[in-house]
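Data availability (excerpt). The following record was deposited with the supplementary files.
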Amino acid sequence: MVAYVGSGGHGGGRRHGRALAQVEESNYKGKGSGTCTYMNPFSQQETCVQMTGEAYEVEDAAKLWCDAPGLPGAVGTYVKGGSCAQFDDENFGGVCVNGKGTPEETVSAFVEGGGPLGSCATTIMGCETFGGGEWVQAGGKCAKDEDDESMKSVVAGGGNGTTGLAEGECKLQAGIAGGGHMDMDAFWTSSCANSNSSYSTPRRWTADTKTITTQKEGSVSVGKVWYDLENNRRREDSFRVEGAPSVFNDARNTTFIHMGPTFYLIDWNEDGTHKCTISPSPVGILRPNWIIDSLGYGAVSQYLGVVYQVYEGKYRRVKQFRKTEPLEDAYMVQSFDDEEVWETPEGPKRRPLERQTPGAPFQGDAVNQYFNHSTTFSDDVFEIYKSLDCKEREFNRTQILERQKELAEKTGVDLNETELAQTGGLNLNSSLHVDSSVLQVDCENCDITYEVRATEEDGEEIGEEVVSGDVEEDGGVAGGADFEGQEEASSELAISWSYSGANSTLRVVAELDKDAWLSIAFPDIPCLMEPAVSVIALPQGDGSVKTNRYSINSHSAAGIKEMLGDDNGGIPSFVGSSTDDGKVKVELTKVVSSFPLSVTWARGFDRNLGYHGGSGRGCLEVSPPVDQ
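Predicted structure:
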């Protein structure tokens, strides 16, 4: 699960004059007045909180906090004197402490594993970036690593460095969220990466909108959006003309304002009254250049090419990009006008005409269309909430679970309440999930400066094709001289190889610094997941590793088949093993008929074969040294 946790301190309880005594890090289990357990609306998994602060010694105050634990849609169940079961789980990871040492202290317990949302890096990032808490290992498996890329806050990227930028200028949200969003306290200027690109939207712009949700209870809304990213603010007006309301909001006519770390939601009722509610935002505003770079932990930006799509009743030529969002195992698609240039005060731009967005919890995928683009509007559009009586948002205690059951029934899923709490809402209703076709692809004829990720000592970019007069372009036929090589495929995975020309056999050794499944594969098409032959190692938890050859014919689990009988896929031998400290090792031999040879790898989040996440796969090329 990801640690999107509430911030605590909702008020309503008795305040004590003395602060809560510090609880030892290794002794949070069972502390406080009881537990609050709720289904997290973002991760769609159960979160358990120890109510450790003095303010919650009054049961009514504890129940009041648990009724609305600080997240949109989150509702909880309070158990007096309870203890979170996560502390007794063999995969206990640690705790997220909010309000540490204060009367409003809360301690959320988490377990490591269980898919992409359960990795240590993601959980810790969620605690400290989204939840505003402090991660404490507390004897668990998840130690905070300041050098882990998933926990870092990216500043400028692409063609710009960070030198000379002011505090908060061009700053991205830390970790995964930086793939799309600027930091909650950031601001965007002409110094930010690719600001001059025509595929980076203006910092200040507005357009009319039409939004269509595409699945289940579909809806159609029309409205208008305003962006002012130099001042970190966005407004969107929406009027639902068709379909059912959202579980989070049943109003037909709404105004949504995002100001840095705060949301303002205004419902305009048909009788002339209104309701204005305030809630915290877990992320900053969508940044202008989000779709054209691969910044953000585990994100991949892919240029899809030129296509024709229906726009205002006619076919329109557009350039399309898509980008992954590893937290949801999904991607977004954005289409830019490829027929006309939009002249703006910030220079020539390409109008964003359409965006496809994967469904949030309890909502279908959305198609957002934009019309009548302009850069001229008054700042007064962002001031409307100041004249209204806005209050902190409250949530219905039973509506969320009832809505989730309804979605499960409509998709034919038979789940009990425990299973419902563990099932991702996105899996029930989104069709924009990542598959093997999502690759890093740059637009060569676009005015985009792409980030150089690493260089060799001679200054050439790693991965750049090098052709020598002494070697044929296709690498030639295997055989000949022996050679060897190695590569740090990731911070957790090291791969080495040695080739014997006498028998045309390549020996590959891969060592994963994690107790999780590991795959080494040889694809027919370089760097693609399938079709391929592979060796997959599955740790069993008792020191043994189940290892076999597999054919991979699609990105789904059904397309991964054990290779039985006489067909060895050109892999005559293999072995999997594990070390006492939890590392997994695969050794194999592969008969090679020609070079270069593409080798793909993937690693899991736990021992069970499943999704590898955006950063859990990669490829490398094996070929003889140039002087051979």
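Summary of structural features: The radius of gyration is 26 Å.
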